[in-house]
């Protein structure tokens, strides 16, 4: 009788289901450690930089080459004013802080890998609060105008942190439902690749692209408010004026700073023995392949119209 039940179609189907279920658990456990909404989230592995490390090394190599008089990157002159052949105005701001050198890496990573014709389309503005902004990297950059893409949108977000975008997700069926919850929302329902609306929870201000028609409005707003954090002031302006905000997925910028300009960063938001700044990052960014991205960029440059 027992063997008959054991080998019955229902029992065999159940055992097959359980076998597949445990295989699924093993797979999810191995692949969702970077999902902060997953039961298997592992901060010890999730916060280890992967692609960021490669990018920092490439940025440093570019900085060294740009300051070497014998390289093609050195000795170029910077245009005094923007001209019509330029497409982007890129501003990089930071606050001088003891023991941190992220500014150099940021500038280097922005320029490294670009084709010379692409660098010629950029007008780069560097600003370090309470510190001179003279930097030899300026010799490898040219002036540019702000690109216009739409005055309807306040900005396009190039970076957001997975830590902020969390929301609640509503015996075989219960097990499957439990597995879905264990896998995590970011894994089960990831943001689609491309441009999408992000009017809330889009921390922080590491990479925002604003259309020309909105820049002066933001400047006037900042001058009116006089003091505050850029991301909070920008969101306050957007909420007050009903502005649309968009984000690019996957994130093309990563936050690697470990020392906050806001002072003590071990408050209520800190955990895993890490400061808030240390946890401010995009996990998907670290899964990028330097080889694939370089090949993709090379194809884009080859198909780019000349002149």
SSE blueprint and pairings:
Elements: H1 2-6, H2 9-31, H3 43-46, H4 51-66, E1 88-95, H5 102-111, H6 116-119, E2 122-129, E3 153-157, H7 172-183, H8 185-188, E4 194-197, E5 208-209, H9 212-225, H10 230-241, E6 244-249, H11 290-303
Parallel strand pairs: 1-2, 3-6
Antiparallel strand pairs: 3-5, 4-6
Helix pairs in contact: 2-7, 4-5, 9-10
Q: Helicity range of the residues?
A: 25-40%
Mean pLDDT: 77
* Secondary-structure-derived class: alpha/beta
Order of helices and strands: HHHHEHHEEHHEEHHEH
In short:
The chain is α/β, with parallel strands linked by helices. It is built from 11 helices and 6 strands.
Structure, described:
Helices cover 38% and strands 11% of the residues. It has 307 residues and is an alpha/beta fold. It has a four-stranded mixed β-sheet, with no helix packed on it. A two-stranded parallel ribbon has the order 1-2. Helix 2 (9-31) packs parallel to helix 7, helix 4 (51-66) packs across helix 5 and helix 9 packs across helix 10. The N and C termini lie far apart (83 Å).
List the defining traits of the structure above.
four-stranded mixed sheet, 307 residues, alpha/beta, two-stranded parallel sheet
